[in-house]
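Note to self: user wants both folds in one dump. Writing first protein now.
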Amino acid sequence: MNYIRHLAAFFWCVEQDDRLTPHHISLYLALFQRWNLNRFQNPISINRAEMLRMSKIGSVNTYSRCLKQLHQWKYIDYQPSHNPLKGSRVNMFIFDTTSEQVVIPLINISKQIKQETIEYNEPNQSQSKKMEQETRYGKQPESAAMQEKKPQPENPAGASAKSKIPPPEEHVKIYFLEKEFPEVEAERFFNYYESVGWKVGGRTRMKDWKAAARNWMLNARKYSPRQPLSPQDKSTEYKSDNGKNYAEPL
């Protein structure tokens, strides 16, 4: 058995086989080291505690699963022992280019890769027939990506102004002037919601700033201070005229 050829062939399998995980690779290298100590004689007797320590696998369930899968995928020949006083046995296949045993896992990998290539590269019969008919009648076949419905963006370019939060301060002033409200009231509205992060009630993100502006205007009318009286109104505010003639005797 050639040490270098064996490891080179194994790592080629690792590169091609997507089923293998770092746990599988670490466990196989631990088995290979145990096989090396046994002078590459099959079978080798393994101890679970020793394999866990050498492979750095911390879970017994992961160790058992990986060992069975390596056997199932023809990387090793695992012979479990049901006797607690007797260790399990493992036959290591020789992954050497001069050996026929290397064909066992490589054939499985080749079949898997070939099957995946057919599934992804060859269209089914119905799709081929449809494409042929469309080409015959002058319609260019669409690709699979074009046939799929494209999701609509959440904020299209032509979205209304109410979706733009926060709005520009100039837009707020223009809107208040359109509603016959002074510019200073627009500044109060903008400064208040700018300070609270444009959240309604301090929690919910504002969705329509124009609706919030209309509510602001309603509250402004409701709580607006009473207009001061003119001098003429002040002079007549407490003046009473009840039609009495004080010149007449009682």
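First done. Writing the second protein, which came from a different request thread.
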Amino acid sequence: MWDVITDEYIKRVLKDRQGLLAAIHDRLLELYQEMDNSDEAIKSATFGSAHENIGGGRSSDKKDLTDIMLRHFQLLRAQSMEIRVEMNRLVEEQETINRIWCCYSALNIDDKRILSDLYVKDLPYKEVECNAKKRGVSSTTLERRRKNGLQELKKLYNSSLSNVDIVSRTQYKAAEAKKKSRAVPKSNYRQMSLDMLLDPEGGSSSDLDMLKKQEK
């Protein structure tokens, strides 16, 4: 996983996560095949070098051929190392993409909605701004939430929490929010009714009207 991520790379991941992961997957398959071919070539070169040392012939010719085979062997080893380095780089990027998406999923609903509209859905800024105003969200608040969302995402990314911890915490928050939404506050109604029964004239006309409506 990368140590540092930029806002631009976060936006790129949010816009095209599946495309980036698919490209990495395809390239890794190619590299696995190249690595197999490279390993086979190294085995062949090693066997050929050992066989050549056993054979006869002029020493000068053997030396020239041995030098060529040695250079070829070194080239194959270098290619094999390059393949492994690229594979490691791709796996790190894959881990980074998954981490970014995990952190995005854990954002609060307001910040996440802004980032979703702007980058995941890739809607024009003006359209997102217009939709936000319909919900009573000003342009200033929209921009603040956008910046805050990116900042909070990076904080989560750089935290010591594992992806599993982040997902678990998100699920816990969602469950708690669901419980709260199901709770029906009855204490206010009961207290108001009791106060009005003890002192009917003490309540406001709006309170009395409300009680009458509730009794109906």
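Dump finished. Worth passing along: Confidence is low (pLDDT under 50) at residues 189-194, 200-204.
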